Each structure stands twice: as structure tokens, then as C-alpha cells.
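Methods — Computational structure assignment.
A single polypeptide chain was analysed. Its primary sequence is given first, followed by the predicted tertiary structure written as C-alpha cells.
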Amino acid sequence: MGKSLTISRVSSFRGKVRPPSDKSLTHRAYLLAALAQPVPGEEFVPAVDGPGAASAYGVPGRNVSQILNPLTGEDCESTLACLEALGVRVERVSDRERRVHAEGKLSGKDVILDCGNSGTTMRLLAGLVAASPDASGTMVGDASLLKRPMKRVVQPLRLMGAEIEGDTAPLTFTGKTLSGISYESPVASAQIKSCLLLAGLLSDGTTTVTEPSLSRDHTERMLTALGVDLQRDGLAVSVRGGQTWNSFAFKVPADISSAAFFMVAAALHPGARVTLQEVGVNPSRTGILDVFAESGIVVTTEPRQDELGEPVADLSIEGAAILKPFTIRGDLVPRLIDEIPVLAVLATQCHGTSIIRDAAEMRVKETDRIAVVADALTQMGAQVEVFPDGMAITGPTALKGITVDSAGDHRIGMSFAVAGSIAEGETIILNADHIGTSYPEFEQHFETLAVRS
């Protein structure tokens, strides 16, 4: 049994914090830094941390990428460890800085790539390893990751000519030169799209990925900022193989998926005001702002400097006296898929029935989030109707504290900590140590912002 976290009702949330840096962007920055084209004889001159420090990305001749304010949680560290196993030199300068040396390729024979609990590591790195003729090995992970579906990336990679054994981890790869394909993804998934685009950059010809709706476009934005030529035609994005880019400096914005927990915590407490600083507000990730607007929650946005094609802003949230119900479905789902558990908590206090549909992807996350969220909220006293692809929640209802096993799912743990802040009695989160995979400072920030009468 891991660590437990006990939460009691709080009267309000007030103050400012900077949430953890964006996990998706940290993963991608490490991968792109490793594959940057090395230039012989050039010296690395580190950027100065401060306003504008990380804007000089893509400077020709720099052989070391400087990643400032990376997320240092376990998932992103798994990506770094896998890159090291594939011959990439990494310098862990401090918690606020990582340096990744440009290699231009991945290499190593019969290596073991331990992805831990990180589906992003496994799916994105799969495309790069499969398309690297100098690399071979086996991807493994923890018990949770071994159960997660990998055929969604393995199948299209095989269409490109990849040699991969297994449809779930462990996955064994023999890297080779692949051929570009045109692929219609059955689901809107940034991980599928990014896996294939990254593989396509190392492959012959052109690779095109078409989605049913737009998923997160971090990979496209970062590559474009680095000078890579991507072509977009509606929901299709194409990349030509053989393109290269230089090392860069990048200051990682805060993760809106992590900010979401204190956004909802503030919204649930009338009179609360919380400011989340330096949050990435990429439009493909800001579905929670749409939900807040529908619910009548006031959010003030103060723009900051863009980072590697990613817009950044400070977000201030005010607690609402009356919360209106909301609907999540269709194209909105990919823009907030990770925020749905905590938005379900918000729904318990909305006046009316909130609907969540088209979110079957929640069932193949670290846990079956639909089942776990619905069951725990019902135990707390909420009115929940479950669907195969979502749920309906009718409120407002008073919640009571319960014991919730996060079952290795960091977002479940944090969502029910937020629920505990409005519940009678104590809410106990079991296996709360998994929160550290994406938000190591969660407990500290909770105590910083919580107001107890």
C-alpha cells in the first residue's frame, strides 16, 4: 500500500501558484532535442533564465538543447532514461534545467526501454525507434502500462514497414528505414498522430495522418517553430521525411491539465480567486475554458510570451455562486480528455444535469476513468448515470467524504482531493504517491491555496 492523502473541507481557495510544467511538451522537447542535427565544432552557450530567455530556439550550430522548467515527474524522466539507453547524452543540471545533446539519430542494440507508467513515452518513442536502423530493443513498463492498448500505434507503424513484436507491452523493435503512408486514425489522438509524424520524419517519402477531429497539436507547433515543413489540409497533416532541425532552448509552460484541479477547486467555492501562472493555452488544450464559460465561471486571461509556438497566459478563476450545467461531447472531448474526471466533480455542484459523451477513451487510461469516477462520486452522494462513453451527473448534491483508491491514476487522486474540499468529513486518497507522476507539488500547492475558517 502506497502513501495516503487525507483531505477535509475548506472554506475557500485564494492565492497564486505556478502549476507543474506541461508533461506533453516536456516529452516532446526531449525527443526533438535528441534528434536535432549536430554541427561539428560549435560551442554551447546556455541561455539566461529570465524573460525571453528561451525564445532563441533553432539557432544554427548549437549542439545542446536547453530545456528550462521541465516537468521532473516520473513520466518525463522515463523518456529521458529511454533516450539515454538509446545513446543520447543528457545532463540533469538541476530541477529547473535539463540539457540534451544533439545526436541526430537513436542507436543501441537489444536495449531495454523502461517506460514506467508513461503511455506517452511508449507511444511517441515507438515511432522513433521503429524508424531508426541503428536501434533495436524492447519497450517495457509497469503493470498499468502493460495493460494499455498499443496496437493503435503498432498497426500503422507496421503499415510503414516496421518490425515490431507485440500489440501490448512488452514491444520488441528492430529498427529499419520505413516508408511514408497516408493513415486515417480511427480516433482523435495526439499520441497516434505524433508517433506517426515523428516516424515519418525519419522515413522515406511523405507521411499523412488524418483524424476524425483535431487532437492536441503540440508536435506540429514545435516542429514548425523549429523550421520543419508541415502541411495541414483540414484534419490531415503531412510531413516529408529527411528534414532536420537544430538544437534549441525552450522554457516549458505550465500544464493546463494540472492547472485544471485548482481551477475547479476555485470555481466550487463562491468568493474564491486563484491565479495559475504561466499556463500553456494552446487552443487544442483549452476545452476546460469552454466548459467554464458554459457554467458561468469567470476566467481572466493575461497573455504572456509564446514559447516554441505555444501560447502562454496567467489564468485567474473566480468562484461562482451558481454553477450552470454543461455538455462535453464531440470535438470538445480531445481538447479536455484528461480534465474530465475533475470536471465530473464540478458537475456535482451544477444546477441541472451535465452530460459527458463520446469519451470512451477514458476507459483505456491509467484506469477505467468512467467507471472509477462514477463509482466514487456515487459513493460520495452524487447522482450519476453511466454510459459506455461517458456519464450524466445531476446536481447540486451535498458530498460526503469517503476512501478512494486512486489505483495508480494520478488524475483520479487529484480529482477526489478536490471533491474532498467540499465534502463533509474526511476524504482519504489511497495510493496518493502516484500524484507525483504529473504534479509533484500538489499537496504543497493545495495547502498554499486552501483557506480554512
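Note: The longest helix spans residues 23-34.
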